[in-house]
Design brief:
Blueprint lengths: L16 H9 L7 H22 L15 H5 L3 H32 L5 H19 L3 H9 L6 H11 L7 H15 L5 H19 L6 H18 L2 H6 L2
Helix pairs in contact: 2-4, 2-10, 4-5, 4-6, 5-8, 8-9, 8-10, 9-10
Length: 242
């Protein structure tokens, strides 16, 4: 009788399958850094609104019908303009990081839903608007800080631009409403969802109305509350995420 013995030699004889399976079974804690990026974006968004409000030359009564001498008056606010530019751009960059983190967080629990995409798109869209709001800064703050002549009418237009465009956080409202929709499915804390419904919904309504610039105020508050909520109140997900 002939006996046949089959021997299997793995390519990697030094591989420990037991150890590998143990590592695979260990839960990984999800990072909170993306949420803190959102907090930073919210704080800088509020600072954007504050510094923009400080450049109020165009809203002074003396320039209601005549802008003669406007550029000379705006010259005294160039320091604020430099601060406004850096704050706005940095806030936009942090908002993109938060958008990516929120998209990943929602996608992990809603893989086949449009909710994560809408939330991320709303935040990225707002970041783009912020960049556009700061887009004319170099054209004006550099000449105003030096000895170059700037037309009064152009300077007045620029003041209107930074007094409106960076405040347009309407799309952030979509992110808030998306978080609310996720909360209704039980994958986000209820209170975070309610904040999204109230502040996110109000942000959208303000954006639709002629008071669209006020969406920046409410939108920044939503971002602040929501980012802190995900940073400190999302423990169940962070402890089980893979």
């Amino acid at each position: 009788m002939t006996t046949s013995v089959t021997t299997t030699n793995p390519v990697r004889s030094d591989r420990n399958d037991t150890v590998d399976s143990q590592h695979a079974a260990e839960p990984r804690t999800a990072s909170r850094r993306w949420a803190f990026a959102g907090t930073g974006a919210a704080v800088l968004g509020i600072a954007t609104i504050a510094t923009s409000s400080m450049v109020d030359t165009v809203y002074q009564k003396q320039y209601e019908s005549n802008v003669d001498g406007f550029a000379a008056d705006l010259h005294h606010k160039t320091g604020i303009l430099f601060a406004f530019h850096s704050i706005t751009v940095l806030g936009a960059l942090l908002m993109v990081v938060f958008a990516a983190g929120l998209h990943r967080r929602l996608k992990a629990v809603l893989p086949d839903s449009l909710i994560p995409t809408i939330a991320g798109a709303g935040l990225v869209g707002t970041a783009v608007v912020s960049i556009m709001g700061s887009g004319l800064d170099t054209e004006f703050m550099m000449p105003l800080a030096g000895d170059a002549d700037v037309q009064d009418s152009s300077a007045a237009m620029y003041n209107h631009w930074i007094g409106t465009i960076p405040w347009l956080w309407t799309l952030v409202g979509l992110a808030g409403l998306s978080v609310y929709a996720a909360a209704r499915r039980g994958v986000v804390a209820r209170w975070i969802g309610r904040v999204g419904l109230v502040l996110g919904g109000l942000t959208v309504l303000l954006g639709i109305s002629p008071l669209e610039y006020m969406s920046g105020v409410v939108g920044a508050l939503w971002l602040l509350a929501t980012s802190l909520g995900f940073a400190f109140g999302d423990r169940r997900f962070r402890g089980t995420a893979r």
